[in-house]
Every structure is written in C-alpha cells, then in structure tokens.
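new request in #modeling-help
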Amino acid sequence: MSSTVPAGLYEQLAYQLSQVIGFIYPNEIETHWSILIVVYPYLTGIVAGAFILASLVKVFNVVEVQPIYRLALLTALSFMLIAGLPLQLHLGHPERAYEIFFTPQPTSAMAMFGFVYLWYLLGILLIEVWLEYRQQLILMAREATGPRTLLYRALSLFSNDVSPAAVAWDHRASRIVTIIGIPSAFLLHGYVGFIFGSIKANPWWGSVLMPIVFLMSAIVSGIAMVMLVYMVISLLRNRKLDMRCLDKVGLFLLVALIVDFALEALDYIHRIYQSEESIKILGELVSVKLFNSLVIVQVALGMLLPMLILAMARSRRVNEDLRKLMYFTSVLLIQLGIFSMRWNVVIGGQLFSKSFRGLMAYKMELTGMESLMTALVLLSLPFIILTVLNYLLPTRWMDEHAHAHA
Amino acid sequence: MNKRDFLKGAVLFFPAAGVLQALACKAEGKELSATATTGYDPTQHWYGMGVDVDKCIGCNRCVEACKAENGVPDEPFYFRTWIERYSIYADGEVKVECISTKTPEQRLADQSEPIDPSVLRTFFVPKLCNQCANPPCVQVCPVGATFQTTDGVVLVDEKRCIGCRYCIQACPYGARYLNPNTRTADKCTFCYHRVTKGLLPACVEVCPTEARIFGDLKARADRLVRFQRQNEISVLKPDLNTEPKVRYAKLDGEVR
C-alpha cells in the first residue's frame, strides 16, 4: 500500500468523513467539483446574459437600452476573459488542458467546451467590440499624442477608414455578428447546463430542463450585472442615471426573472410529482443540507423578493430616487440568488450518495488552489478587467452621442 | 562535391533521417500486434466477473489485496473495490455500512457484537467497477483518457487524463476516485496487468470462499459462463442501461 495524501486534503476528507449521514459509497467522500466549479457557471452566465441584453439594442432596436449597450458588451467581454480560468485551475493536470483542443473525444459533452468558448470569444465578442469601437478608436488615435496614439491604432487593428460608407459597413456587420451571437450565447450557457443535465448517474443534475434553466438564469444574472455595473459606475463618475433606460432594463429583468422562476418551479414540481426512486434522498438533501442556500437565499431572497421589488417599482407612485434604490437592491439580491443557484446545483449534486442512502458534507477550504480565496480573486478579476476596458474604451462618448440623438 | 560539402551533408542527413523515420513510424500509428509479442490476443476475450453474494464473509482480504497490488492509497477515502454490509430489519428498515473504511480492530469488534433479534438477515456485498459494456465514464471523458479495451475492460490512461473528474461524476456506482498521487482518475482495472498474462485479479486470487468468479464471457467453457448458467443473475442499477459486466448472484433488491 502506498500513500502521500497531502496533509490539507487528508484533513478535509477526514472532517468530511466525520460528517457523513447514513451510508455513502466510500469514494464519494471527496467533493470533486469544488467552489471553483460554482464560480465557472456563474461567470459564464453573466457573459451570456450581458450579451443578450446588448443584442436588444442591435437586433431588436430597443432604443431605451442604447446608453448601456457598450457597457453590456464590455461586461460580457470582461467576464468571458475569466470564465475559463476556474476550470483551468481546477484540473488535476492544468498543463494538459490543450488536449481538449487537440484530441477531443466526440462523445463527451465537455469536449466541446473549448470550442464553444473560443468561438464565442474570438468569433463573436471580440469582433463585436472591435466593430463597435473601430471608428472611435481611429478618431481617438488622431487626437491623442505619444504612446496613446499607437495604443489606439493597435486596438483599431491599424484600420484608418472612417468614411460614412465604412462606418455604415461596421453597423451592418455588427448587426449580423449580433444575430449570430444570440444563438451562440444560448449555446454557451445552455451547454453549461447540458454538462450537468446529461449526467444520468446524478438525479439532482440529470434533467432535460437543466440547459434551459441555466440559460434563463444566465439572462437574469447578466442583465442584473450590467444594471449593477451601470449604477455603480454612474455613482463613481457622479453622473445622472438614465431612468428611461433603467426602467426598460428593469422590465426585461422582471420578465426574465418570472420565466426563470417558472422554469425552476416546473422542475421541482415535476420531480416531486413523479416521485422517482431518488425523491426521498433529494428531499433530505434540500431539508438538511440546502435549506438555507436554496429555500431562503436562492428562492426567497434571490428570486421572490427582487421579483416583488421590481414589480412594485413599476408603479407610477414610486419616485425616481426610490426606484433607483429598489433597482439597486434587486440586482444585488439577484446576484446573491444566482450564485446560490450555481452553488446548489454544483455542490448540492455532490452532497448525496448515488446509493440514495446518505448525505455528505463539503468543507470549503479558505486558502489554497480550490478555496474561497481563489474564488474571490476569480470573482473580482472581471471587475478589474472591466475597469481597465472602461478606461481604454470609454462608454461615455457613446452615451453622449445617444443623448444627443435622443 | 568536395570533401567539406560531403561532410556537411552527412552531418545534416543522418540526424534528419533518424527524425523522419521516427515521425514516419508515429504517423503510421500501427500498434504492435499484442499476439505477435506476447501470444495474447485481446479480440478473443470479453472479461467479466461474477459475485456470489451468499459466499462473501466480509473478511476484507480482497480490498487489502487490491490496495497492495495496485498501489491504491491506504487512506479510507480511496477504493477500487470495497465491501458493504447490509442489515435488513423486521420492520423493513435497512442499514448499510462500508466495512472497508473501518480499521481491522473495528471490524473485529463488530463481530463480537451481540446478535440483534430485530435483524431479519445480514449479508455482505463486494463492490467494484462494473466494467460496463456501455460505460458512461468513457462517454463523458473530454480527452479520451478513459477507454474500453477490446477485451472489455475500462481503463484510464494516466498520462493523458487531465483530472477534470467528469468521469467520477458520471459513474453511477461510485467506483472512481481521483488518485492524490497522480492527480488523475483511478479505478479498478480487473488487474489488467495480471489477466492478460493468464493470472487472476488480485481480489479473486485471495478470496477464501470463491465469492468472486473472474472469467471470459466469450469462452464457452468458462467458470463465469457456468456461474451465469447455474444462478439467477442481477446487475446493479440496470435501469441506467450501463450493461455491467459484474454479475451478481442472489443479490437482494435493497442493494444499489
């Protein structure tokens, strides 16, 4: 016999073993998908949702949302650049990750991940951002002095044509990319749901509704995140919020939230009514392990309460300041709820035995590779990137243009 | 051609030819015929295992032999095979425990416990990778690191596995773990290194009651085939359509 189990891991597993309720298969003691795998669908969802919000402007001509169009794009890009990182860090052999690209296994739901991710980043997001900013970058390069000139020229990929015909072409191309982008965004996050939903061994995951539930929750989280970022940036820059825009986005958020709630409710009702072999252990899972994170945080605080607040905000009697506060509270609660939803799916699915006879525990580490600290760093990185992007590619000009047009 | 040019050419030619030859061999991708080198032909076999539940006495020797043979970590978190003990009570309650996670002292202490009259019956069930004919773990591996051999054994290539653990999630039987030493997925191999040499898997070899029957489902006159003929056979979680090749005799309906 042999062993060199690292001390930290040993301690974690020994603790988790002491917390087992009932019977589990002995190998099930390790929580294989940790907090990092919770962060991954959370980040990816925001990408897809923010892009869908942006597409409202480009494809569906919702003019009210125009002021946050660029912000939505940059938010999607910032989160996209980090979305793959938690997966990479989670691998037992991160140095072999390239194998997913070079020798993908066609039957694996996960093998397509790299391609879907790359397609979305390179084929959609970067092109869309470039088309949106090209004209402005060229103009900025002409006005700037010193190294900034080169930076802006490089960002515009050294294009130099700002003739009306070229700009019109940008707009047309951007619209086409967005039209392709919508199903791609659906693919990006529906696919994440499929990775879980297709696991027949795990009744908590194995549901045909999983991709669509992930998709709707992605739209909710993305819209809420863009709204949050918009409010915070406006506050920091001491600029007036566009209430017409906020009200419209708030309405879309409310509708998305209702659809998301309906889908998740349908999933639970279906499971309870069908009452399959696993229903007893899943019931125990919810009541013993997930009561706080699912019933209280995800459903009550993260869905029903913001739904109520957003609905109340639609009343004519609510004044502007109060509405801002209501929107702000809702989007914060929604972020909390969506993160809990990811937690409940990923961690929850690993807290009951596939023998359906017992429950496990998950002890999150505070430091180390798969720890709370890494998760917090990963969650803050998109905001740092967004700050840099905002600095390089100002959303402000466009805002002013939009105001000028309005 | 003068002497200098000739030498220059020769210095470049020989290493280059060597590299090209090596590449050509790789590109051809031909595996050496196993039969030619070892006399073993994988196409002639389709391995499986029978487990006679009534014969298992819960001595845990199979588990110890497996750990020793295959370098499975000693800690009670990693098993390629393990033993479950079921107690069926008169009121219908079922108590299950894994005796393999216990220390030998604990197992000994269990044996000296007084008999509980409310227990209808107890039995042991050896568990291991079911070497499914339709394996979900192989289906989900993103890089093809886990695969099914021609002779029907599911293996993991530890040089290719990226440690994403999707296969561990996809296994309905809890048969896989992440080896903390290699950081790759690990599981029962039916002792592939032994069986291809005509030996028995370590767990089968040491079982004192012959509760485990290793065999070849392709051979007509084989112990496993005879075992299947003489017993009513069940497999674990048949509804999942994994088509296990570990076949149980006298398996209680409570076993999952």
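bot summary: Residues 35-267+366-400 of chain A form one domain.
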